[in-house]
């Protein structure tokens, strides 16, 4: 019986990792709808590819904004807070950036969108493994 249970668990584990999707979250930032994707789910320490798709209130893709990403980890005993900023590059209809989480744990990500003279932010949290 134990062997059967272990075999079933192994099948689900392998199947789960084989079909794992990107980390994806949709947020509102002012009048924009922002879809943030990270190519690993859950995000991992080291390099992760981030993409941001932005739509305006009418549902049209936004391709003329300046998009910056800031990711932070709160201070812990014996360690100061971590704060990293990076710009994105528009590729097709998505803004792309590479982010590098230096350690596992809870990280905050802020997507800053500037279009014309208006700046808005979308914020999310991820648990990096």
General description of the model:
The protein is mainly beta and 129 residues long. The protein has one domain: Immunoglobulin-like (Sandwich). The chain has one helix at 2-18; strands at 23-29, 32-38, 46-55, 66-73, 82-87, 89-91, 94-101, 105-115, 118-128. A 5-stranded antiparallel β-sheet has the order 1-2-3-7-6, with no helix packed on it. The longest helix has 17 residues, at 2-18. The mean pLDDT is 90.
Defining traits:
129 residues, mainly beta, Immunoglobulin-like, 5-stranded antiparallel beta sheet, 9 strands
Q: Count helical runs.
A: 1
What order do the strands of the largest sheet run in, or round the barrel if closed? 1-2-3-7-6
Number of folding domains? Answer: 1
Q: SSE order, as H and E?
A: HEEEEEEEEE
Please count the beta strands (DSSP E, at least 2 residues each). Answer: 9
Identify the CATH architecture.
Sandwich
Unreliable residue stretches: none
CATH superfamily: Immunoglobulins
The main pleated sheet reads as:
5 strands, antiparallel
What is the beta-strand fraction? over 45%
CATH T-level topology: Immunoglobulin-like
* Structural class estimated from helices and strands: mainly beta
